[in-house]
Amino acid sequence: MTTTTASAQPGERTVGKSSPRTARGPRRRPGRIRRIGLPYLLLLPALLLELLVHLVPMVIGIVMSFKELTQFYIRDWTTAPWAGLDNFTMSVDFDAPVGEALLHSFLVTCAFTILSVGLCWLIGTAAAICMQDAFRGRGLLRAIFLVPYALPVYAAVITWAFMFQHDNGLVNHVLHDQLGLTDKPSFWLIGDNSFVALLVVSVWKGWPFAFLIVMAGLQNIPKELYEAAALDGAGVWQQIRRITLPSLRPVNQVLVLVLFLWTFNDFNTPFVLFGKAAPEAADLISIHIYQSSFVTWNFGAGSAMSVLLLLFLLLVTGVYLFVTSRTARAPRNSRERKTADV
């Protein structure tokens, strides 16, 4: 479009008419910039909190792992002498007492994590499948199942600590006094039974999360698949194996990873259940790092152990995501090949 300008007489103002596109151009740009910058502005508080709460302490911990930081330098940790890789070398020297204790704690944590994640997933998935069909009282049962997940961790674990007491605990009262399954009351918070007590508490408070996630994933499976499978003569177990579990594969991949990271890093449960000094059978690596840092006052070694733990979790997470992505991509490629052949 052309711009027309009226002829101006001396002393008169020149009035010009321009196209709507030219007139609105300067007004659109600030609005577009505002729309583009709004998401970043909304994310800014979360990014600042993430920076202050996680990233800055992480960087400080990594720097501390390279220093000989003991109780003599707590007042000003920046003046601690530089230790280089000595803290890491001491931590991975499995022939020395420090490395041997760390290796034992690592193996206990791996066994505890595998059992806890497996039982949480199994119980949560079974409960979610049982709650899939509508029946009277289903909403009440779902609410009851979520009670352990809704309770504060400290309140729940302290309650279990009282139940595991040797003389007047509910567990010994039921197993020994009522059912007669044991010859004498057992010690659950010390000795080898401490691992079982820790596992029971972890599974009790962890399986409702798996139940909640799996129950949400089941809502996306069409009921027509089950109806067609029933018409073909498939039983309940065949429907679960052929329809439910394959359909839940993306949900289970995320669920297992989250449960693994939470359980492997769990500090609140063993700390509240056993205190500062956990029994040898339940010496998780989180408690072990705490003892190395705040009991022996060797913050350099404790920071080095934390960095090693971080590297291990990053490695496991990367391998897990790589394997699961390839597993999910394999059926898709096979279907595409079959379609191409046809």
TrEMBL record:
The chain crosses the membrane at residues 37-66, 106-131, 143-163, 195-218, 247-264, 299-323. Belongs to the binding-protein-dependent transport system permease family. Gene3D superfamilies: MetI-like (1.10.3720.10). The keyword Repeat does not apply. This is Sugar ABC transporter permease. Pfam families: BPD_transp_1. It comes from the Bacteria. It comes from Streptomyces violaceolatus.
